[in-house]
């Protein structure tokens, strides 16, 4: 079986954080093979396309994709289809058929002070599993009445609900076996189908406990009592909003990893792994970027694509340990800690793994 990873650093701090991630992955799992390609503004500058065919071909020939971030002021004035975010990210996700977005929100004990909910009396550790290719963002839309009436349609099929619920069940099995399925069942027909299908799947997977929650209540409960959640399973638009809300519970963009998963190929779950943050042009090239979100995305890659849970846990433990030692990049710096650069914190994680 191959262990091939397509590496797309992209633009701005994407390049810096991905360099650290590859360094860490090489030590954590020496049998991975990496091949790099251009994406985003860097690709546009090279060949006039933000997502060159050769980059897409490399992704298709790989088991997983590691992406930094794309975009920046240099390319903001280009026509929409050539802009890195629209011309690269959206087609990449669509072409690779990535239908599940998995975003953990975990407060690391050593960074508890960065969380706005630091007094909750426990540490937040939850995952949002969001359906990514269906629902209202992809439904028919139109204007009527001379442009004065607008229509968006929300559509879900049993197949789409089943496959995302399967992902949530497999994520829950790696954690505390609890799923909160979030919908608006009291109003929406798509939500009624959602609940019907999720209930059928729950009946066939009784090792995982499934409960239901209305989306408005979930938005409130995430703030009131985030410790009650293990895995939140939800549709596209609800997940867009709830995953951003959940991620801010941790306090820093530089710490948030994510995975977008597709179907299994050759017995492996294909996935694209990337930090939640963007290319941060304001700090690019200064060694100030926090690489932990990207490194933790690399740990997710080991877990979900390469089924190497112990490799993932070793990376997570090394990250925790380096933070416990007091090393901090500027975004999470606090008095008494030691300010380090992007590559210094990467080196420290490598040293923990090697030691
Ligand atoms: P951003 O996430 O790049 O930055 C927001 C703020 O957070 C900035 O002050 C930045 O310095 C800080 N920040 C972000 N990541 C950090 C890290 N790892 N370490 C330390 N500080 C960090 O969002 P933005 O400023 O709105 O967007 C900048 C560019 O990135 C835009 O071109 C945007 O379109 C693009 N973008 C790309 C992606 C992606 O590639 N997935 C996602 C979001 C934004």
What does this structure look like?
- The protein has eleven helices and 14 strands.
- The protein is of the alpha/beta class.
- The protein has two domains: 1-99 and 253-355, Isopropylmalate Dehydrogenase, CATH 3.40.718.10; 125-248, Isopropylmalate Dehydrogenase (3-Layer(aba) Sandwich), CATH 3.40.718.10.
- Strands 2-1-3-12-11-4-5-10-8-9 form a ten-stranded mixed beta sheet, with helices on both faces.
- It is globular and about 55 Å long.
- The structure holds nicotinamide-adenine-dinucleotide (NAD).
Summed up:
The chain is an alpha/beta fold and about 350 residues long. It contains eleven helices and 14 strands.
What hetero molecules are bound to the protein chains? nicotinamide-adenine-dinucleotide
Helix segment tally: 11
* Amount of beta strand: 15-25%
Mean pLDDT: 94
Radius of gyration: 20 Å
Q: What is the global morphology?
A: globular
Order of helices and strands: EHEHHEHEEEEHEHEHEHEEHHEEH
Number of strands: 14
What is the name of the CATH class of the largest domain?
Alpha Beta
Model regions low in confidence, pLDDT < 50 over at least 5 residues = none
Q: State the distance separating the first and last CA atoms.
A: 29 Å
Largest beta sheet: strand ordering: 2-1-3-12-11-4-5-10-8-9
Largest sheet: 10 strands, mixed
CATH architecture type of the largest domain: 3-Layer(aba) Sandwich
Helix amount, in percent? 25-40%
How many separate domains make up the residues? 2
Structural class determined from secondary elements = alpha/beta
Q: What's the CATH topology label of the largest domain?
A: Isopropylmalate Dehydrogenase
The CATH homologous superfamily name of the largest domain equals Isopropylmalate Dehydrogenase
């Amino acid at each position: 079986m191959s262990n091939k990873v397509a590496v797309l650093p992209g633009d701005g701090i994407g390049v810096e954080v991905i360099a650290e991630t590859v360094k860490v992955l090489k030590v954590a799992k020496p049998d991975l093979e990496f091949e790099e390609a251009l994406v985003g503004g860097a690709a546009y500058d090279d060949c006039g396309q933000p997502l060159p065919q050769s980059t897409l071909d490399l992704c298709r020939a790989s088991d997983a994709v590691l992406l930094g971030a794309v975009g920046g002021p240099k390319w903001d004035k280009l026509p929409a289809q050539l802009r890195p975010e629209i011309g690269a990210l959206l087609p990449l996700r669509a072409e690779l058929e990535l239908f599940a977005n998995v975003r953990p929100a975990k407060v690391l004990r050593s960074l508890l002070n960065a969380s706005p909910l630091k007094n909750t009396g426990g540490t937040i550790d939850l995952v949002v599993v969001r359906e990514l290719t269906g629902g209202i963002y992809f439904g028919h839309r139109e204007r009527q009445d001379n442009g004065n009436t607008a229509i968006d349609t929300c559509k879900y099929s049993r197949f789409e609900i089943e496959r995302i619920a399967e992902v949530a069940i497999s994520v829950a099995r790696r954690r505390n076996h609890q799923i909160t399925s979030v919908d608006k069942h009291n109003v929406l027909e798509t939500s009624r189908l959602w609940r019907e299908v999720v209930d059928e799947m729950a009946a066939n997977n009784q090792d995982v406990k499934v409960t239901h929650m209305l989306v408005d209540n979930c938005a409130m409960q995430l703030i009131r009592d985030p410790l009650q959640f293990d895995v939140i399973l939800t549709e596209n638009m609800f997940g867009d909003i709830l995953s951003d809300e959940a991620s801010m519970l941790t306090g820093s963009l530089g710490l948030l990893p994510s995975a977008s998963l597709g179907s299994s190929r050759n017995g492996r779950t294909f996935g694209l792994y990337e930090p939640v943050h963007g290319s941060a042009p304001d700090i690019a090239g200064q060694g100030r970027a926090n690489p932990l979100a990207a490194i933790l995305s690399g740990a997710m890659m080991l877990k979900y694509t390469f089924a190497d849970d112990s490799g993932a846990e070793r990376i997570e433990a090394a990250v925790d340990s380096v933070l416990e030692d007091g090393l901090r990049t500027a975004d999470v710096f606090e008095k008494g800690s030691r300010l380090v650069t992007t590559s210094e914190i990467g080196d420290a994680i490598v040293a923990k793994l090697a030691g």
